[in-house]
Amino acid sequence: MGRAQRSSLAAKIVAPTGLLVFLLLFTQASALHAMQTPPIVTGWGGSRLLESGRFSHSSPAGEVFPGENASDMEMQARMLVQKGFNGYRASFAPYCTDRNGFFGTYNASQLSRSIEIAAHYGLWIIVDYHGYDDLQTGSSTSCWLSFWDVVVHQFTGRYDRIIWEPLNEPNATFASISIVNSAYQQWVDQARSLGDDHWIVIENLCSLSCGLPVADSWKAYPTVNDPAGRLFISLHAYFEYQYHYSEWSNATAETYARTWVLDMLNGTQSTGWPVLNTEGGPGRPFGRLANETTTTCPDVILNGSSGYCKTNLHFIQTMTSLLDSQTTTLQSRLNWLWFPMADWSSTPGAGIYGSLSPTGPGWGTILSYKNAPPLLNLTISATPDLVRIYPGTSKTSLIAINSTGFAGVANLAVIATPSGPIAVPANTRLQVTAGSSNTTYLTIIIPRGTPVGVYDVVLTGSGGIQGSRATIVRVIVRDFTMTADSKVVPVLAGQRAVSHIDIEGLNNFNDKVALSVASSPSVSNVTLFPTSVAVGPGQTSTATLSFNSSFANTYILTINGWSDGSSHSTNVTVIVQDFKISLSPIGFPLLAGSSQTLTLFANGIEGFSGTVTLNASISPRGPTIEVTPRIVFLTTGETGAASLIINLPPTMSSGSYIITIDATVSGIHHQTILSLDITSPTLRPSSQPYFTIQGLQLLQFVGLVSFVSRQEAMFLPVESRVSSILSWTGKSGIFSRAT
I need a surface site. Which of 57, 501, 560, 562 has the fewest CB within 10 A? Predict the structure, then answer.
């Protein structure tokens, strides 16, 4: 409905007889282009997408979404079916100009639910972008087109009874109709390029304020071409007291109703498209006049946003009867959706039904109208209709089409929740004869990564303009998770590492999970117990992972869990740590009476850190050895060092000795061995004859020897000089020289 309903216009009113004459002439006119046979659609609008998820705790159980109370929208859909309607309009706020407006922010999940409700009850759903100003600027038009590109792409294949309404009431005068023509044409071309073939509503500019007299409103239908031949034209008509208080009578109301219908018929002739008026009604019984005075009609019956007066009730009754009875070359009757049926009405007692509320009573309950065609005479069933399934797996359901009068081809289509299951019928066209049945299979696929939860897959069977029926397969996506209490486990070589694996069920998981473990690099000493666990709803079961290895390395243990086709895995990294010791070797024999200091190195492996205790022993006994310090502190990535001091007594015997170095840390023991060769220094006998010096000649001899030795040393090799010594031969005072 317009934000400010059309002002009173100096309209050229056509007499009632003029309408009959025109109709006789019009029925001979033909469409200007090829088009599809339009469906008959009658119903109500005003409901917002968000009403698909709003419900009262007093509402009965829902049929569309088992386990929930029926939403306000589902209750409205039930009311429509009971009263013989077959369509409803679901609205949302204009995303590009007032996205958080009264009709609610667009929400894809809410639209999906709204479509599922329509499909369940076999209703047409008019998806209404309830905006006005989106064609005012180039940037807002671009935004509008981009928004719809996403929506149409997402929902184009979801339900055959969707009707797109790109814009509620374009805010433009007749002088700028070319701009509106271009925008609508871009919208239609964009939708068709996406492969969409749903019907589309093109709105008359006079639904808001076109600046033309009422009788000329038919000129304000935008001119649009559609290769699919599926366009409707719409004109929103009301008779509000605020704009007609000076001419308030049944006769005037009737004249306006006839004039609006003439506009619709003239619009069909000029555009070549059939009529679907997506709004209309008596109009509000109250309003604010130009002098800011608030006024209410003198014959008010109910006040508020879905209220009415006797006079404008006569207006909408006249228009309804005219639309139901008109026959053109395109339609056997003209389509309409009246307004409002919603849960937001300010009229006392309107509840969730607005003008269709039995309390009051709402004007929709006393309106005379022709029922829409009956629902399609066939039923669809799914066996099973409840599927429990895991991400990454698939299951099938047998779909049966049973005809109770319908004969022809039932076209199957799937409506599934975005980012949820994928459902594919084996055959999308099932031929049935009256009283017969046909079957196919529906494969339900759950992509990996699909969140656990409850999803509804709606399968519709359409008989074209005769209607459609639907069945729902409820899909419970359940799963389990595997987590290790220790993802990285450092352990010393030869010792046992333990990690606990928790298996938790999600979304009422109730099954057994088979478990296995593999190691990289491969080892044999890894165990997992138990190898099968039962996990009930809301429970967590645990398995114990055990591992040891004497070889330092990093081991990746992969624990796999499997249940009914679903599998998960988790990794535990075991870092087996160790250390090593090394000693710098001795490449030559040691002499008795000497000492030697060697460096002992300690290095960590795989991030080892700790306190290393060192001990040394030698066999056989003889030399003395000492390690200092005896305790070495190792930190990750660093090298520790200690000194090994070896003392060799001068009296020890020559031979081989074994030094053993022991290093221990928290139960780890390492040992290194050093082989030690020891040689005693000895004097070889001289090859020269002994000579004797007696008496007082001794002192002279000493001096001589000293002189000769020095002189001789000058001509000897180094080795000879070193080894040339004098030996005292005994008490007799005899020296000898050994060379």
Answer: 57
